[in-house]
């Protein structure tokens, strides 16, 4: 029997679009795939095993080789420099990273405080702009920080813009466009080239039209 291909899927926002894409690529995923609370799902007909992980952890599973491939947001890839190959832009879960803050906020002479879930992306961005800032790492509800006086600005994901709007914040700078990517463990890429190439080819066809 051929080696099973293990795919790390992100739970949450990306899951539905990613599962939809795999189905369009003609992978026969069982109906319980979408509803199950199981974290490991085998699809023997396809010789595939899916593991379900937090979006930020998908890269860790792939880097350690316990998953051969995975689906991860470009934001996660930019934040942590990991030893994985990024082989395909899936063009799903589109959003962007931006700097935001309160409108008409006063400029301080000292380094402004920037709250974010992406400290590395934010640091590099402000370094490139030649701006000195103090980064404050948060894990969620980033928009709260300027409202409560924890930070002067935030670096966060924007999709519809609703969260900024409902909290009276404005977008100040656009950092970069984000989509989800197919990532591959370098050793798996050599050892399981056949099923991986096939996956890339079938997904590419879906992206292409
Ligand atoms: N509006 C959005 N907000 C956040 N992430 C988005 C958005 N739209 C698309 N994404 C993509 O989805 C991924 C995050 O998915 P999700 O929101 O399910 O997880 P999370 O917020 O990191 O996890 P959790 O909130 O469960 O800790 C991001 O890495 C990004 O690539
Ligand atoms: O532009 P929008 O469509 O409003 O989407 C952007 C919001 O969604 C994300 O938060 P999420 O819902 O993941 O919650 P979190 O703050 O707990 O990360 C992100 O961090 C923004 O807050």
From TrEMBL:
Q: Which gene encodes it?
A: hisG
Quaternary data: Heteromultimer composed of HisG and HisZ subunits.
Q: Which UniProt keywords apply?
A: Amino-acid biosynthesis, ATP-binding, Cytoplasm, Glycosyltransferase, Histidine biosynthesis, Nucleotide-binding, Transferase
Q: Which Gene3D superfamilies match?
A: Periplasmic binding protein-like II
Q: Which residues form the signal peptide?
A: none
InterPro entries recorded: ATP_PRibTrfase_cat, ATP_PRibTrfase_CS, ATP_PRibTrfase_HisG, ATP_PRibTrfase_HisG_short
What terms describe the molecular function in GO for this protein?
A: ATP phosphoribosyltransferase activity
Record protein name field: ATP phosphoribosyltransferase
Role, per record: Catalyzes the condensation of ATP and 5-phosphoribose 1-diphosphate to form N'-(5'-phosphoribosyl)-ATP (PR-ATP). Has a crucial role in the pathway because the rate of histidine biosynthesis seems to be controlled primarily by regulation of HisG enzymatic activity.
Protein family (similarity comment): Belongs to the ATP phosphoribosyltransferase family. Short subfamily.
Tell me where on the tree of life, at the top rank, the source sits: Bacteria
Q: Which HAMAP family match?
A: HisG_Short
The record's top EC class is: transferase
**Compartment(s) where it occurs, according to its Swiss-Prot or TrEMBL record:** Cytoplasm
The ATP phosphoribosyltransferase catalytic domain covers: 54-204
Q: In which pathway does it act?
A: Amino-acid biosynthesis; L-histidine biosynthesis; L-histidine from 5-phospho-alpha-D-ribose 1-diphosphate: step 1/9
Tell me the classification of the organism that encodes this protein. Answer: Bacteria, Bacillati, Bacillota, Bacilli, Bacillales
Q: Which reaction does it catalyse?
A: 1-(5-phospho-beta-D-ribosyl)-ATP + diphosphate = 5-phospho-alpha-D-ribose 1-diphosphate + ATP
> What EC number(s) has UniProt assigned to this enzyme?
2.4.2.17
Q: What is known of its domains?
A: Lacks the C-terminal regulatory region which is replaced by HisZ.
What broad class describes the main subcellular location of this protein? cytoplasm
